[in-house]
Amino acid sequence: MCWWCGRPRRPANSKCQRITPRHRRAPISSLDNRVAPDRSAVDDILAGLSPDRRDLFELRVRRWLPDLRAALALLYPAESAAALQRRLIEAAARAYRDRPADLHRLDQARTLAPDWFQEPAMLGYAAYCDRLGGDLRGVRAQLPYLSELGVTYLHLMPVLRARDGDSDGGYAVADYRDVEPALGTVQDLRDLTAAMRAAGISLVLDLVLNHVAREHHWARAARDGDQTYRGYFHIHPDRAEPDEYEKTLPEVFPDFAPGSFSWDPELSGWVWTTFNSFQWDVNWANPDVFFEYADIVLWLANVGVEVIRLDAIAFLWKRKGTNCQNQPEVHAIAQALRAVLRIAAPATLLKAEAIVAPRELVQYFGRGRSHGKASDLAYHNTLMAQVWSMLATRDTALAVRALGALPTAPTTTSWICYLRCHDDIGWAIDDADAGAVGLGGFAHRSFLSDYYLGEFPGSTARGLVFQPNPATGDRRVSGTTAALAGLEAAEAAGDPAAIDIALRRILLAHAIIMGWGGIPVIWMGDELGMPNDPNWQADPAHAADNRWAHRGPMSSELQAQRFVDGAVAHRLFHGLAQMARARSALPQLHAATPAAVAPGPNPGILMVLRDHPQGELVELFNVTEQWQPWPVRSHYPGAVPAIDALGGNPVQIGDDGCLWLEPYQALWLVAPC
Ligand code: GLC
Ligand code: GLC
């Protein structure tokens, strides 16, 4: 296929007959009409713009149409794909026309620096809006605090209007074009994004695109019997089909929302509900659903959202006989949405929330011919699980094996590296990886649950078990970083030595995620050592869901502690801010430079290498509470002498030829300039 005109090449391997200077300058309308949007409709939409602006739109369409077309062809029959493509280009034209001037300028800047989000200066932070600042205006007041930490990317949990009562933390959206009244208005959201742009912080918002609230107007219309809107959902009159699907479907909330279908009397049917019964899965096989979401994406981009988190993307496409996760179509959906965004609002990125098995992960950046064309960002949940595993076992063998086995991400994309988020932690540990280092996959996952629930002898972790599944033996874990890493218990015991060790452990864990490249994201409160919220059950809507234990409110007293010398919050906050500063000065930590792990002579130390034209970065992480030696003479791939870029000091080699790492010490070693 010719990438320029989208036509098959004839004959095979010959040059495309249509690539001529004349062809390149041809107006859109002269191209094959399977590829070309309806020129006159687009012209009408853009009529009020200057010739330069109109021309820029046309250039972008030419650049991204092949990606859009290829993705839609995978999703829908030819005729509906072509019709949808036309509607999407028209929607993109409207969004482009209406895009505010400052965002248009941001598009230009980002087009000139398309790797902006891969820069080592990126630092993420994630929080619930109400828990960070009360409401959107309150979040604005927190921006100086975030800048002090070095934050350049802020993920606010859902702020769009949710259903009343339990809304799964806002993940049951009743209106995508309105803001939750308790948090403010759409204007407040626009004001916040403008203030954030001025502060150099990109806003990340969720797009919940697997389901809507039962109260969303599509669901209401479906309940009223409107056939068009019934077609937006997966509805079955009896249990025959649901039973077939459920033979191979895992349960996400086996505890409080068992099964994947809910009977709704008003629908007179079983509706697909992967999560809670009030969250109705939408039917992405319906092109109208695609169009609705693409239009919402464009709207969010024009409000100033810079990264759109594709919530639960793994679940979007259903296929009988499978677990209905990670189907190839979900990657095509991301590719098509991305192409639409690149045309209308290229400053905006997509982030896949796919908390899936290690082998399924990298596909979210695009697979095969779509390599690098799906989401720009994805969560590195393998790294997350491996960090906790190393801290529990004081051993790096499994992490080296699992991280080393992952295909490298496309160089134009970036991982989100994190220790925890607002959700529970699931042990994404592959049986084959575990087997390769002499562990049983199930037994190791079970050990990790025991360990972080504080049930394993010697563990001081204070996690809570989330959604235990007796059928599979699966036990996920809730808890803040301080609770899981033993800080909460050490503080409760008033044990200074244990507090010191826990602080080192937390800083080490952050040094690993900050040293991986990509965007490290700190979860609200972890920078201050926030424990689990003892009152998490007080709100009856949350009482059954212990993820709320690690979603406690920010406390201004705790924030003030960062100024108190020697306080836990002081050590953590300044330790992390210092790490972020060191990171931003290291070109090796640009996300395009892959991180490599290799087995070393000491299993208590993880070595991560980043090879870069400006010199190698060698990272060493002691994952134990003992001093550990690293034999430099025999096993150091970088230049000696070296400087530790984290602490800013030259490293001292012992008389025994070893570099000795303190308990939980992290070293980022570079050659001296
Ligand atoms: C996502 C969210 C999670 C939510 C689920 C359903 O995975 O992170 O909090 O429960 O989607 O929307
Ligand atoms: C999302 C995540 C999954 C998590 C669930 C509930 O679907 O992918 O890991 O367990 O939400 O929190």
TrEMBL record:
Keywords for this protein: Isomerase
Source organism, top-level taxon: Bacteria
Molecular-function GO term, any one: amylosucrase activity
Residue ranges constituting the Glycosyl hydrolase family 13 catalytic domain according to the UniProt record: 111-583
Keyword NAD recorded: no
UniProt record, GO biological process: carbohydrate metabolic process
SUPFAM superfamilies: (Trans)glycosidases
InterPro entries: Amylosucrase, Amylosucrase_C, GH, GH13_cat_dom, Glyco_hydro_b, O16G_dom_2
SMART domains (UniProt xref): Aamy
Keyword Isomerase (UniProt): yes
Spans through the membrane: none
Protein known as: Alpha-amylase
